[in-house]
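cron nightly-structures :: item 1 of 1
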Amino acid sequence: MWQPIFMISGYFVSILGLSMLIPAAVDMYYTHQNWSPFVTSSIISLFIGVSLYLGNRTKIEKISIRQGYLITAISWFVLSFLSALPFMLTETTSYWADAVFEATSGITTTGATILTDIDNTPKAILLWRSLLNGLGGVGIVIFAVALLPFLGIGGMQIFQRESSDLNEKLMPKISYIAKRIIVVYIILLSLTFGGLLLAGMGKFDALNHALAAVSTGGFSTKTASVGYFDNVWAELVLIFGMIAGSLPLTWYLVIFKSGKNNSFRSAQVPFFLKTVLFYVMATTLWLAYTYEQYSFVESLRYAAFNVVSITTDCGFISGDYMQWGLFAQTIFLIFALTGGCSGSTSGGIKAFRWQTIFAFLKKSIINMTEPNRIIPVKIKNMNVDNNIINSVFIFILAFAFSIIFLTVLVAITDVDFTTAFSAIIGCITNAGPGVGNIVGPAGSFAPLSDFAKYVCAFAMLLGRLEVMTILVVFTKNFWRK
């Protein structure tokens, strides 16, 4: 059972090790100060990865469901751990908890940070953070599945566990899907990068922000995030990148191939876009009405960027919404919970699940007055299978329980409820910032204790892997033969 798991995990680690050479090359071009720690990290990762791969190399006929869960969970934990090496070796962080937190935040596309002076952080580290966003956004497991044919593996189980895309098999081979997802991802990155260059942003900043936007990761090269540039055109380009990344990546493939798609995947797209538009307009009107210093146009600008950023669980900020009052802090938590679409780079509960909940609620309300009436749960003109409905409510229950439990764990470190609760919301939804002076948009997670940081890092992985993928591994039944 374990031989295929270690072999494939080694393959993933090897990809991570090779990725570390990119920041090393960039540093050699700019400063020649931090390339050595990245090369050392790369050697360590490649040694572990290649050793696991060669030491467990075997012909794999089939991957079981249990193995699929283990490969996904183990890979993400190991990758998060090894991704922390450059932060420690470059002395960007002084403690291992800080390095693990920053690395996990990057690869899970959360965007929360413990860094307090990003402006003076070495370019190699800034690029590494953005690369982690990029790798995590497309899903490093998906990336590897595209290259697994030489292992003789179809990879369907791994794709199902990582993608959360309703397990719809759109095309005959998963490797075919994965390769084209990567192509779509690169096209979106290129469009965003080109748009940022046209908006006047420098090449380095444009590359980093393009990676963070499309991956909905939110890592910026500036302490003040996107607000540092005060560039409305750059904000518009980033809004495009964030929304593009929060739509199903496979949806682009189907639209390009047939021009239309009658599936749950496509049905959630207009629902998500309408939801974001409603959030933006409601926040704009409230901001313009409440604060006289903002004109309607200024209110629209600040509301559009920050609402899109939090709703897509990206985490960029162009202004400190903590200054907008308690109401803004409350609704921004709701925005983070909303999330993007299933099968996207975004986090949160996701649009399809909200559609299912609303459809089931509508059916239940009607049945309260007409108990004998048979009403199917429908999204648009499509019936939702009972298995899907059950899985949605199980996810919501597990998601809510996880938030409560993890909030308590953070709170026992002598953190106030608002900080603890919003920190976990920001981490488990992969949105990044919470509310309050510590973990708010203008703050940092640095003041939290090491234990709280580890809890938050676990919450990031829990959210990135859709909660159940990790929780199922901790059950007794999972380990029974």
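cron nightly-structures :: done
The first helix runs from residue 2 to 19.
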